[in-house]
Q: What sequence folds into this?
């Protein structure tokens, strides 16, 4: 498939989606041109799903040019490392550098335009993506989730379930429940990231917050990103500005 054909496929569901590598390239250009900083002074932290497909489709340039990445995310990208994790990588960043936090849930879109599924490398049948979101959605639709049920044995999955349970009717009444569930999870992740950032001290120049939905497709199509937030916090004057238009 040509790049424009891949984008047409993904933009049926996410109209502002770009390829993940294009988002990364634009981000690095912004850091160099607008912040006047080399990417080697930027500590990358991501809060994305631990699904192996995200490691496979992770742009190599990110690990080659940025410091890190520090991994904050567990199932479907929720920042389970919490305040301790945020504080840890905040202390690792160069004094005259910046922190870039990339976060959000992920979802699959197959070449057959099936949302919530992808064909993984070496397999003949599609599988769920994000599997945790689909599993939680199945329990939600069956009415088997119980408010407050969070166990040590399956803490991360139970947390995702509780996030969806709070928005049960919004999700189940949607035309595409898995799409809506992913939106709900994004909102929960974004809210938690804002809380963690507010409660953390950074000894550097900037904090860059990039939130969105990471979109996986079949192994021969690649990954994409629908960016919902790109904020730059200037720690010297405490200002905050959105540059979202650069990534749409």
A:
């Amino acid at each position: 498939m040509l790049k424009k054909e891949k984008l047409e496929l993904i933009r049926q569901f996410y109209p502002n989606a770009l390829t993940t590598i294009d988002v990364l390239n634009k981000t690095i250009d912004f850091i160099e041109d607008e912040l006047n900083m080399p990417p080697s002074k930027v500590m990358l932290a991501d809060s994305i799903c631990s699904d192996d497909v995200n490691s496979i489709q992770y742009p190599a340039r990110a690990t080659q040019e940025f410091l890190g990445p520090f991994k904050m995310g567990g199932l479907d990208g929720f920042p389970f490392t919490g305040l301790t994790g945020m504080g840890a990588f905040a202390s690792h960043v160069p004094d005259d550098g910046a922190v870039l936090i990339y976060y959000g849930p992920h979802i699959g879109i197959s070449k057959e335009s099936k949302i919530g599924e992808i064909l993984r490398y070496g397999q003949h049948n599609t599988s769920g993506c994000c599997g945790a979101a689909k599993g939680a959605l199945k329990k939600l639709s069956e009415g088997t989730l119980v408010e407050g049920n969070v166990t040590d044995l399956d803490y991360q999955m139970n947390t995702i379930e509780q996030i969806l349970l709070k928005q049960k009717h919004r999700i189940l009444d949607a035309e595409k429940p898995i799409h809506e569930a992913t939106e709900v999870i994004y909102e929960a992740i974004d809210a938690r990231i804002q809380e963690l950032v507010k409660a953390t001290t950074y000894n550097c120049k900037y904090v860059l917050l990039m939130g969105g939905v990471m979109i996986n497709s079949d192994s021969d199509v690649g990954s994409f990103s629908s960016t919902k937030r790109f904020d730059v916090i200037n720690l010297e004057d405490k200002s905050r500005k959105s540059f979202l238009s650069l990534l749409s």
